Amino acid sequence: MLAYIFRRLLLIVPTLFGILLINFIIIQAAPGGPVEQMIAKLEGFDAAAGGATGRIAGGGAEVAAAGNAYRGAQGLDPELVKEIERMYGFDKPASERFWIMIKNYLHFDFGQSFFRDATVTELIIEKMPVSISLGLWSTLIMYLVSIPLGIAKAMRHGSTFDVWTSTAIIVGYAIPAFLFAILLIVLFAGGSYFDWFPLRGLTSNNFDELSLWGKIADYFWHLALPVTALVIGNFATLTLLTKNSFLDEIGKQYVVTARAKGLSENRVLYGHVFRNAMLIIIAGFPSAFIGLFFTGSLLIEVIFSLDGLGLMSFESAINRDYPVVFGTLFIFTLLGLIVKLIGDLTYTLVDPRIDFESREG
């Protein structure tokens, strides 16, 4: 097992390199980089709003073929344009910029944000509490609700309970998380009916003045609506997956044999079926966790005015803040690969018969 873990850890290196290289090439071809945005501001245009319009024709991401000047920068001093290039590191060829970035990433130096007065690491640490809060509690509640509910539906397959819960699950799945979030605001955050929950932020303004239990209560009071919106929009798939997985296992011969030996239903279910049925659930945990942790909460962060990693990454991509884009991409990918490895190792805890090392051999 140690050899398998070591090989998987080594595989992370080329995987990270390949992902960064592909995204670097794609971003270099995209119009409207930081140099062009700065030129647009100096020329009196809003690059973020106007994109690649006006005097920055076609986005201006490429250097004009005839001269060595950016499109839309004809009225600016060439020395000023060169200074802007040096400021953002674009005075070097793309290949050299990529290798400098890779060397810096080897010791986790993600550089300085182009448009925020902070390093990428500082920005990530600042936004992390929101994303951790949304991703952790949403995933935890989703699994605590979906797995028992899926097992109950499997044991009562075809009953009234199964039909009504399936109806509720389908309705919940059909409503997008952001739409459900708006509904919660209308109902419970002072929209039209009740004013029971706060509308924005992760904590109250007087959070530092509260007692320990007061801080805990305030924290979960602010999280109640956004976490509920995320859970409602994501637990349906896991519930049905759990149910179908258990139904598939219950119909197998070893379950019939266990029952024929006189084992109790709980012993059959949790001593034999549970271990095998949970393997497919564990397989989906890494993607579910990473999806909720980083990308799934973007609209929720916007609706509830929560400044987290999802919102920061989206804004950085729009503004072409390359250090933040690549820094967060590196961290998201690294964390995703590590969580995937942890998910594989959890297989062996649930079912010791699984041996990844012998399979690779």
Write the layout of secondary structure elements.
Blueprint: H1 2-29, H2 34-43, H3 47-50, H4 78-88, H5 94-106, H6 120-155, H7 160-174, H8 177-188, H9 212-250, H10 253-260, H11 265-283, H12 285-295, H13 298-303, H14 309-319, H15 322-350, H16 356-360
Overview of the structural elements:
- One of its GO terms (cellular component) is plasma membrane.
- Probably part of a binding-protein-dependent transport system. Probably responsible for the translocation of the substrate across the membrane.
- Pfam families: BPD_transp_1.
- The chain has 361 residues and is mainly alpha-helical.
- The protein folds into two domains: 76 residues, no CATH class; 241 residues, MetI-like fold (Orthogonal Bundle).
- It has 16 helices and no strands.
- Helix 1 packs antiparallel against helix 15, helix 6 packs across helix 12 and helix 9 crosses helix 11.
- The radius of gyration is 26 Å and the shape is globular.
- About 7% of the residues have low confidence.
